[in-house]
Every structure is written in C-alpha cells, then in structure tokens.
Amino acid sequence: MLGHTWRRSLQLRVVVSTLTLSLIVIVILGVVLTSQITDRLLEAKISAATEEMDRARNTVQAQLAGADDGNTLSSRLDGARASLSNREADGQSAGAAGTFDPALIVPGDGPLPPTVSGPADQIPESLRRFVQQGQVSYQFATVDDPDGYRGPALIVGSPTASDISTLELYLIFPLASEERSLSLMRSTMLIGGAVLLVLLAAVSMLVARQVVLPIRSASRIAVRFADGRLKERMPVRGEDDMARLAMSFNEMAESLSKQITQLEEFGNLQRRFTSDVSHELRTPLTTVRMAADLIHDSSDDLDPALRRSSELLVNELDRFEMLLNDLLEISRHDAGVA
After folding, report:
1. For position 94, what pLDDT does the model report?
2. How far is 9 from 29, CA to CA, in rounded Å?
3. What is the average pLDDT across 19-27?
4. Can you tell me the mean pLDDT for 99-115?
5. Alpha helix locations (H) across the chain?
C-alpha cells in the first residue's frame, strides 16, 4: 500500500525527499556546531584553569614558606590546602574557571606511602607522571569524590617551587556548568531542528501542491478529451512554466481536435461516396443483367464465338454484382444499419 502510494504521488515523493535532505543537513550542522561550541567551551575552561593554577601555586608556595617547619608534613599540606579553600570561599578565586577542589601530593620515599591532602585518589596516574617530570599538564577525567562532585572534570596539575621539592599540586574543576550549557544547547538545537523540519514540510507541501495541481488538472482533462469531449481545455493563469504547459497542452488538444474532426468529415464523405456509388450502379447493372440473361437464354441459336462471349458476360456480371453487394454491405455497416 505504501509503495503504491509512493509510486503514484509526486507530492509525497517531493515532500519526503525534501525532508530527508533537510534532516541530513540539519544533523550535519548540529554535529559541527556542537563540536565547535564544545571545543570553545573546553578551550576557555583550560585557559582559565591554567591561570587559576598559577595563582593557586603562588598561594601554596607562600603558605608553605610561612608555615612552622616544626609541623608535620601532613599538617603543612592541610594548611596549604585550607588556604586555597579559604581563598575560594572568600571569592578571591572566582572567575572563568569556576570552583575547584585542590589536592596536594608528596610522593613517598621508598617503602613509605605518599603524603596527601585532598582527593588524591581521583588524580590519574598518567597526569601525575607528567607533573613529576616538571610539566604543567591537564587531563579530562570522571571523578567520584565521596565528599564532593561526581562526574566529568578537568584536572590541572603542576609542580611547585616550595621547600618541599617533590610537592605536586592538583586542581579539580567540575564541568557541571559546561555540561548544563551543552545540554541546553543540544535541547535548543533539537527543538529548533524539529520546528524547522515542520516548517520545511509545510513549505515543501505547498510548493509541491502548486506544481502537482496543474499536472493533475492536465491528467483529468486528457482523460475527458480521450472520452470524446474535444472542447476540453486547460485554464491558463499567469506566464510561468505551468502557464506555458497549459498553453502547449491546449495547442496540442486544438490540433488533435481539428485532425479528428477532419477525419470524421473524411469518413462521412467516404461513406456517402460508397453509398452513392453502390446505389447509382444498381439501376444500370440491373438493366445490363436483364439484357445479358436474355442473350444467354438465346445462346443456343448463336454461333460458338457469340455463345462464348455471352457466357463471359454473364460471369463478369455475377462478379460485378458481388462487388456491388459488398459495397452496399460496407455502406450499411458504416451507417450503423447492419
């Protein structure tokens, strides 16, 4: 049923083809825009996070430099981390980078475990290797902090120049705000794409209807013309392609109508000629027939040559009479009498 409708409906094919191509274009544009916007958001996040790392590193180095050397390493790290947390709470670190959760790690010496402060278990080992080589690095990861954020995050790591030479500083920036922005953007693009598809469907249906209606009108008029209604013509409106199609159709119909009329007139003339000839020949043929029969009846009194001539005359008259009867039969058939 659907295949039959698809084959017979030009309007349906135009609308479906338009929507299919539009959907492909919208999807491609959506993917490209989403990728571009995501890249820009992450680039801005990385740039702001790197700047925040510079400020945090200076804060940690200043805090450790002013701390009492008699405190344990763990206490000193906790104090440095607290200074970062207090700085964030006071709004001094509020900026494009957003909130963060600091973590400080001092690797263990030999069999001793590392000394940490903060969610050190959320730091990827691959990122730590870069930081231990003296590089400021970053990595996207999924964090699951029991006391904090759960989800995707940007982790920036940096070595420090404090009296603790192996100290590693990490800032964990949640990407919740960026996720919400991207989710809102995707929802907006999805709704906008759906609305655009509906509008394109309406426009394509209207355009296809303007094209299909004259074609359907031409089809109906052609059917009526084939049924013998030779006066049927397409209405001509405007000067566009459809108007030229209507004019061409009407010219063709007019030419066919004239030819059909001429053929009908020629047929009538032919039938009248056949009828007239057959009737006009009937009377002289009857007279000649009577004379030939009379001669043939007296053929015994004639010499052989004349007797043979009379027989030939009768035979030819028989053939001529058969032809005349055929002509009469044809004329009756053409006239609708037979």
Report:
1. 52
2. 30
3. 92
4. 82
5. 2-8, 10-66, 73-89, 125-132, 176-226, 241-297, 304-335
- What does the alpha-carbon distance between residue 300 and residue 308 come to, in Å, rounded to a whole number? 11
- Of 127, 158, 159, 121, nearest to 140 (Cα)? 127
Assigned superfamily of 29-188: PAS domain (3.30.450.20)
In this prediction, residue 338 has a pLDDT band, given cuts at 50, 70 and 90, of: very low
* Distance (Å, whole) CA 223 – CA 209: 21
Identity (one letter) of the amino acid at 211? V
Token pair recorded at residue 287: 């007279």
Q: Which residue has the higher pLDDT, 292 or 55?
A: 55
Domain with CATH 3.30.450.20 in the chain: 29-188
Look up residue 249 and give its two tokens.
């159709």
On whether the CB atoms of residues 104 and 158 are closer than 8 A, the answer is: no
Give the per-residue pLDDT at 273: 73
> Which pairs from 217-221 meet CB under 8 Å and 24+ separation?
218/245, 218/246, 218/249, 221/249, 221/253
CATH number of 241-335: 1.10.287.130
Nearest-5° angle of CA 100, CA 128, CA 78?
Answer: 50
Burial of 297 (0-12, 13-18, 19+ CB in 10 A): exposed
Distance CA 127, CA 143 (A): 14
Q: Which of 123, 106, 121, 21 is nearest to 72 (CA)?
A: 106
